[in-house]
Fold this sequence. Notes:
The complex is a heterodimer of chains A (680) and B (326). With 680 residues, chain A is an alpha/beta fold. Chain A has 25 helices and 15 strands. In chain A, 48% of the residues lie in helices and 12% in strands. In chain A, strands 8-7-6-9-10-11 form a 6-stranded mixed sheet, sandwiched between helices. In chain A, β6, α3 and β7 form a beta-alpha-beta unit. The longest helix of chain A has 21 residues. The two termini of chain A are 35 Å apart. In chain B, α1 links the parallel β7 and β8. At the A-B interface, α21, α23 and α24 of A face β9, α3 and α4 of B.
Amino acid sequence: MSAYRKPGMALQVTAAGRRVLSTVTLVLCAGFFDPIATRDGAGQTPPQAPPIFRTTAESVAVDVSVRVNGSALTGLSAADFVVTDNRVQQRVESVEARAMPLDVTLVADVSGRTRGSWTTSASAADNIRNVTENVGAIAAILRPGDRLRLLASDTSVQQIFPMQAPAPAVVARLETQGLSSTYDALVVAMLRPIEANRRHLVIAWTKPIDTVSTSDASTLREVARRSDAVVHVVERDVDLRAGTAISPGGTPNNPLRMNLREAHVRTWRPLLRNDAAVLPEVAALTGGTFRAFGGLSDPNAAEEFREIFEEFRLGYVVRYAPRDVKREGWHEIAVTVPKLPDAEIRARRGYAIESAPPARTAPGPSDDLSRLATAYARGEIQSVPAELRRTSLPDLRRLIETFRAGDSDSALAAFPKRDALFALELIKAGLAASDRGTRDAALDLVGEYVNLVRSPLPGDIFECGWYGAVVAALEGALQGSVANDLLPRLLARCPADGRLRLARAFVSDQLAQMRATAVGTSRADPTPAIADGILSRYDEAAKLPDVAREANVRAAWLAHRAGMVDRAMTYLGHIRPPGNDRALDYFGELVRGQVLRARGRPDEAIAAFRSALAAWPGAQSARVGLMLLLVRHGERREAEALAEAVQADPGTQIDPWWMYWQGDYRLLQVLEANLRELAR
Amino acid sequence: MTRRRRRLCIGCLLVTILGPVAAQDERPTFRSTAAAVRVDVSVLDNDRPVSYLTAGDFELVDDGVRQKIADLSYGKLPIDVTVALDVSRSVTGDLLANLRRSVDDVRGRLRNGDRLKLMAFNQRVRRILDYSSRSADTKAAFDGLSGSGGTALLDALAVAMTSAAPVDRRQLVILFSDGVDTNSVADPAALIDLARHTTPTVVFVGPFDWSRGSQLPRSLASEITAPLGGNPPPRNQAPPLRSGRLGTSSLYERLADETGGLVVSLPGVGANLQGTFGRILDDFRSSYVLYFTPQSAAKPGFHTIDVRVTRSGSYEIRARRGYVRE
């Protein structure tokens, strides 16, 4: 069947659908849907609905399979079918046999063994071999003109090869043994638009565990309701779902294996999705089948695929023009063949058309939000932060909560990257608020968008950049504990991102400092034991060239504060000559001056403070550091002049040292500018 | 008695190495090896200032060598008062208003020749009222303040102590803060070193138990042995002007000790604050200024000094720990 494509109507954001569509649109931007549009940014610009669903205002097409006694029945005509749309009988305009070429998406869950009972100790080589065999089995069934693509689900969704002519494919590279993101993979698969005169079949080869998907069961259902694809699910090792088939003592034949399974189930059960019915439901919603196999009864891939294709090819496409039914909302479809009361008939259960937003009578937070979002969508990005700064705290909190609830006609729905940047503006404004409620609302938004910006593929430049920006905002707001909780997940997505790696060390440093300050022991320095753990993280960051300098500067300062003078000197020795980051040059010299002063090398310390002043003229901290040493040296007049300069400074510039404990916050504007370029 | 066994309401021993005692040079010449030394000494009897002593009533020992008092004055030298106010995020609202009244109170107690300077600091250290400002400017200075940002307490103190200190004037620094430092580049060791090289007497005031804050490095803390017990007083009691000399490992007490100053822990925000600044100034004013020229060839570096009153009686004497000769 096909859902409507509503002419001239963008995918309307409703309270129920906004979250789904936010996910959907962000996923689309990851490159699965339209790689060209994503590369050149065109996906951000056209103010049209993403062509997710094959729809027309006039016609609905429904895939129908009819089986009698287990066999597909052919030769039926339009007169044989009765179709109701929301219980209103419709006039069937045509029935076609499925001679159209097929587009097939195979979704292979490789987060564990792909044959036999699932464990995490899968061999990548075995998985590659098994997936290759499955691809070969499908390729052998497909016909000329059909196409096949392969998505693999692990910690990230991997497109192993795009939609292409069927051929025995060599799967050269596959990431396995990670976490499972089957829901995301299915969303990606179902969102593919159907080209004219083609059909789309999705076959998911999976298990009942999903641990890291951005999409939840609700999202999956909503996408299934709107997708043109027919989804068949082959679920292996269904015992994992409930554990009911697992005997605590194992089986007489293989007690060890069962005990191992027991251990795995105990480990993973907390991560199982609560909604065990979602995959069968997704299959039913789209008119597909759900095929379940226990841990000891491995499905035969070739046989399953053959049955799926046979049923699909021998089915019908029934078309009708909806009449006497309300246009918007969910349309439930029922297909029967009256002359065959005992026939098994399978068709999708319905389709959805988004409701228009209700008219409002008085301006409220959603109106303000819509106005700001519209301005942001138009590229008027400078006006939005200024207006947010002027917004009163209660209104700001309401704006954030309204944005989270999706109860707004967001002009950003079609611009997911700008939507993510707009969320970042709200996050920044909320984190800077003086009341806890607004800050908490901002933190909730952080938690939500950390998932929403997630690309199905391994973190792309926008996703990782957005993470970097939001971590910088958190560091600037001294929310190190939140950043500390997030960073392992973010680094799993963006393992090569130097700034995130450095942030992992820095937020630990910041937290230790804040905890000391919180108990009233100002300038309480970390113990060597605490410092050692943090230094090891700085050491890790220092291996990445783009952040090595800063990692060594911060490590030197930490080691100095912990009394690890020799180690501090070692880190200072690793700091390379000045680069293009003036603030970092300044940090380096300032830290060098302080360490050398403590080391009893005043002349070198004076030189370092003078270098710091050269790097950042007029900086208060450098002046004070130099002043202290000059007093000791008897250079009283210059010291007094520096004291006077500090007191009389007009305050037109900040001292970067004041932002030392705000980490990458000093870079936030640059990070945002980079993101805006990507979102343009 | 030795001054270390005495408790004073307030005491100030100000040490400056001068040129000739009667020198008109406004700037102390720290490099001079033939310089005279100026010492401020506060003497109390039953918590009341003693004003009847002469040079012959004092015994002053420099690095174990008894020195001859060349001159003495009492209550004559004009005073430069620097009030440094912490206006970081934690010092706002009613407290700011209370501080303004306290500064007005100090201004009201100034005498001819005395001067008042007002500094404010969060992470930025700035002068908001100079010595030459009119009293009417105080309101404008406070109107421009708002609590925000981090705190560079130690940097602010370093700047206040390093500011020009004319030899014909006495210097008092009153620093008000909640005791938390987040942004300073100055560290405890550098501050203690600075205290030995400069002349101002420093008094710390704030709603904070100054004996807890800013722990010293162990090597510095071990130099102080006498414990300081007790907690801040109840809100309805005036805070004691507590001697810094009895300090524990707190940096602030140590700095007060080095400069002959005090720590004043307020029981709460605004409690009895208005009278506190004024009392600090009055107590500072009620002290002697002794001058001596080292009798033996003085070695460069830090000199410990000890001041006693030879006249019979039970006196409480307050003095700084020593001075640095270049």
